[in-house]
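Re: the 315-residue chain
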Amino acid sequence: MSCAELPQPAPGEVLLVCTCYEDGRALWGGLLDEIGARREDDGLVLGRKGVRLRMVEDGRWDFLHGGNIPALVPDSSPVPPVVVLADIPVAYGGGGPLLVDLAATPGRGVRVPSTRLGEILADLLSGVLVFDDLVRDMDRCGMYQGDGGRPAFPTPTPSPPHRSFPSLPSTAAALLVRTCFDDEAGWQALLGELGGTDADGWVGADLDPDEIDVEHYPLTALVVDDPAFEGLQPGQVPALVPCEEHTTLVALADARTFAEPGRPLTVVDLYDSPGQQAVLPCREVGSMACNLEIANMDFHDFVTEEGTKPWWEGA
C-alpha cells in the first residue's frame, strides 16, 4: 500500500486526517457537527481555547491506521505532538475520533468523545495533559474517561528513554512475538501447546478441519523469536507493523506468559485503539483472531473488565 506523507501543520495547528473513503470521497460522518467547530480561513477552530484543526484528505490514506501515522511524518519537518484520525468508527457512528501519539510513544492511540475534542487537544498542547494520562484513563473500549468500565489489565505506559525496535514482519494473519527470553523451556512449552511451529516459523498453519476444537479455535500466527524485541511494550507495537498487509493482531509472549497459569498472552489492538492490550490465556487467542478476522467481534469484546469474571471462565 502506497501512502502519502502528511502535510506539515502550522505551529499550534493539529491535523485532522480522514482515513475512510468511498469511491474516492472522504467520509467524515457526523464528526464536523459533533466537535462544535467553526470555520475560519482554511481550517476549523474548536472551543473557547481556539485549537485549530486542519482537515486533510487523500484517498491513499483509505483504511490507514494509527500505527501507520508516524512513518508518514516528513523527515525534514518538526514532529507534531498528536494527529487526529477520522476513521471507520467515526464515519459510521461507532466511536469518537482517534488521537494518535507522535511524541511519547508514537503510533499508539486513544479515542476521545467528539464533544470534548477541543478541550482535550488544548490540554495536550499546553501540557496540562500528556498522552500517558489518556492511556491510563481509557475504558475497556479505548475511550478516554469513557463509561465502558475499567480494564482489568490497564495498558502500561513505558517510561523513557524508549528503545528502538525493528519493524515486525508483514503478514495478513497474526503475529506471535516473544518479548521475554528468561525461560526457554516455558517458550518451547508455549509453542507446543499451540501445536508447534512448521518449517516456515508458523503455528497453526496446517490445521486439520476434523481436529479443530471450535471452543478453543487454534491460533494461526507467524512466530517472531528475536531478542531484538525483548522488552517490547504494547503501546510500541502498532508503529512496528508494516502497512502493506492488514495484520489481524499481535500477541506478545511476555513475562506474564511464563509466570501465570494458562500461559496468558498480551494481545495488542492495531485498529480501534492502537496499542491497547487484552490479556487472554493462550488457548483463547485463536478464537479472538478468528472473530476479529471475520469482523464478528471487536477488540474491546475481549478486554476483561475490572471486577468482572473473564468471559472464558463462563457465567
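The helical segments are 31-34, 88-91, 117-126, 131-136, 184-193, 282-293.
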